[in-house]
Amino acid sequence: MMHTHSLGRAARYYPERAALGSGGRHSTFRQLHGRIAGIVAALNRHGFERGDRLALLLPNGPEHLELVYACSWLGVVAVPVNTRFSVVEIDRVLADANPRGLIRHSSLPAPTVKLSRGSRCSMKSHWTLRSSSVAIQFTTADELIVHCRRFLANYKIPRRVEFSETDLPKSGSGKILKRALRERFWVDQKRAVG
Questions:
Q1: What residues does each domain of the chain span?
Q2: What is the pLDDT of residue 133?
Q3: pTM reported for the whole predicted model
Q4: Which CATH topology does 2-129 take?
């Protein structure tokens, strides 16, 4: 409760002051309060109530903070899961915590724990977060590159983008095999993959 009271107070007294800054983007207390209220409404629509657990498999960032505030506001217990855990360790944490739902960043491994009612982990919901907690749809590679120019450092902007219908190659622990991806693009090049 203390978190939500401090946020409400800051939104009331300092609505236009910077509350969060990440990757060159800044949010005011009013914007932050509005986003958290929206997350609370979404959790309510999914049936979350006081005392329920929500597992968070997210890197440090605005989305993680917003979800912790939203859980506090609603009385839901936030269960942060270490982003460096392997799939086996994530499964153990989820089986032990028995959360009602999981919110996971798309770059992190997906748990393999069974989501059916008969299993020990009775997780009913699993959401995947992509860029800024909203899955942004890009129809062309140019749109994606323009988006990257707005939010990423120059050295992180991709030179080329390719959309693929197939899944990315992954290891047994669920991590993306970057070397396998690189080999596919360096086949016709003189320089070998390093």
A1: 2-129, 137-162, 164-194
A2: 40
A3: 0.60
A4: Rossmann fold (3.40.50)
